[in-house]
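Listing S7. Sequence submitted for prediction.
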Amino acid sequence: MTPRTRAILQCGVLVGVAATLFLVFPATFRFVEMAARELRYLWWLILLLALGGWLIWGVGRRPKR
């Protein structure tokens, strides 16, 4: 698997998980909508997205030697 294919697959999985969460938990969509309106909730949304990105691309990587 090439790095480009892997990156596209990871982005697709991320979008799929987000769409599934929005369908399964409607409160998630309300939270994102509220975060867009109020800055104090936007920071939590940014932190959650950063955590998700770190879990997808950062965990399981071997340290550079």
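Caption to Listing S7: primary sequence and predicted structure tokens for the chain studied. Residues 24 and 34 are 18 Å apart (CA to CA). The two ends are 23 Å apart (CA to CA).
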